[in-house]
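re: ur question from yesterday

yeah so i grabbed the chain u mentioned. its 53 aa long if i counted rite. heres the sequnce exactly as i have it in my notes:
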Amino acid sequence: MIELREAREYVLSGCLPNDHVVVALNDALGCITAEAVVAAEQVPPFANTAVDG
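ran it thru and got these structure tokens back, copy pasting raw so excuse formatting
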């Protein structure tokens, strides 16, 4: 058995970062964002907890 650190290093050594590409929103299904997506305002603008029942 190997240490977790060694296993992580082994796995990550085989993972190369991909270059990001710009695609239209309609073509973005299945893609992963290259940057964080942050809303400019809270939606909804109040505390909301859905309750079943």
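noticed a couple things. The first helix runs from residue 4 to 13. also Residues 44 and 50 are 12 Å apart (CA to CA).
anyway ttyl
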